Amino acid sequence: MTTLVLENPKSNIIDIQGDTWSERAMSASKLQKIQFEKGSSQYSNLELARNRAAFTRWKTIENLDKYLIEFESNFIKAGGKVIWAQDITDALEAVLEILKKSGAKEIIKSKTNTASEMGLNAFLENEGFQFSETDTGDFIVHAADESGSHMVLPALHKSTKEIASLLHDKLGLPADAEAQGIVRFIRDHLRDTFQTADVGITGCNFLIADPGAVVILENEGNAQLTAAMPKIHIVLAGIDKMLPALSDLDVFLPLLSTYGTGQTLATYNNIISGPKQAEDRDGPEELYIILLDNGRTDVLAHDQQRQALSCIKCGACQTVCPIYHTAGVSDFPSPIAAVTLPLQQVEMQHLSHASTLCGSCKDVCPVKIDIPRLLLQNRKLFVDKGLVNRTEKWFYYAWKKAMLKREIMSWTGISARKHILDSLFKSKDGLRKMPIHSKEIPFNEWYREKMNYK
Ligand code: SF4
User: I need a labelling partner for 231 at 20 to 30 A (CA). Which of 147, 201, 222, 391 fits?
Assistant: First the structure.
């Protein structure tokens, strides 16, 4: 096993404050801006780095077939085993086969969005396997039997108090524990698990075609232990995570850290190629990678929308998104997922409409994905394909009629303000408030009066 670990001793812990979902989402957004300033101070020309990153990812996605084959060949040469999974069922069956063949009893997992996409936790539980989450956020979410709410900060929807109370009830943590105490408690709780687990499951941030390696960025050191200590290591990766060469990391490691958590570099940057070799002291005896398609080639088939596959999953677009701040948790995954998910699963097409197209996501994207434009491309595609429901068709028919008639337009405006919006925006928890409308008469009435215009 060849593992290179780049350690950044200056990394920091992000503590997000707030009692309600909305407060924490806003706090995360503000923190992201502050942290980003720190992380980006390392660049003399950030735009140049973003342009290089965008170009590299675009070129890679355009030639994905070539790079995947190169990756497979090099990964096998280094002693790893490659499994291609067309869909989630294939991927889950592959995991199950490895676990059964190895007689696995204890499994540890580090943070992996691909596992969430596969519904791996529920699957393992149904199959009767015990497993432990080793990432702090995922550990909390798993203890609460919930799903993660942010691609980088999975437990963002829970306050420190809620977490302390949860772990107090389930594992005996002192109920008044603060953030640092919670992290220490989880670390102590997991220490033995790392030593006894026989299979480690991780995700990865990048696949490197040459030399067939996987790259994992992390801040807790848990992914490193999950990969190195059990005798079997399974990596779960979407086929879109590709980079052509190791030299590309000089752009992508700092860029992902800067936009993800505002660090100059993540604390641990692991580059893993192949299982343990005779001369190695530790590392897994077997290394598998499951390359998951699950509709990514459907996204690739769209000339414009394929740009979405350039995403490096930094989470910045999700952190700044006003819809996410309001709807949050599992109702709205992320702006980039609002582009890709509907192309992967047609029943998710409503996500492409859940956007104000404000453009904040585009502004913060390190690889310059034009998310608002891609959302519009999706909307057009669904209309062209007739994938619009009757209510929506009727609504736009009526809306067009109304907008073309001054009297109806004025009436609908006043009526919507008075009746519809007030009831739609009423919020029991007080998180949303309807803006107070002016008592003045509408402009067009004022104008008619002023100009004495009938
Ligand atoms: S779309 Fe851009 S901002 Fe959003 S997660 Fe992907 S890389 Fe980050």
Answer: 147
